[in-house]
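User: Study the chain.
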Amino acid sequence: MVAWSLLVDRVHRRASTGIDWSRKAHDSPPRFVSLTKIVGLWATWAIIGFLYCVARWYWDGDYLFAMEVLALSAPLLVVFSAPYVLWLDRYLLEPRDGA
């Protein structure tokens, strides 16, 4: 369904997404806008991670597999979130959105 939406319906090209793919790099917003988003995203993840560590019942039983997957994927999410936010903010019509 995701492939169909992207390749056939081309939903990422709709004006309702708030993304203008024709924008140039020199039209990008100030870096502090993107950095604020990244810091907020990482702080949110840190709070959620802290709460999962405090709630120790997530570390055994049926939850163990999910916690192991999260532990392995968290560093990748942190590393790739910064370039993704910086890249996407270049094309957003309103980079100072609610995110």
User: Anything to note?
Assistant: Helices lie at 2-9, 31-54, 64-89. Residues 33 and 96 are 7 Å apart (CA to CA).
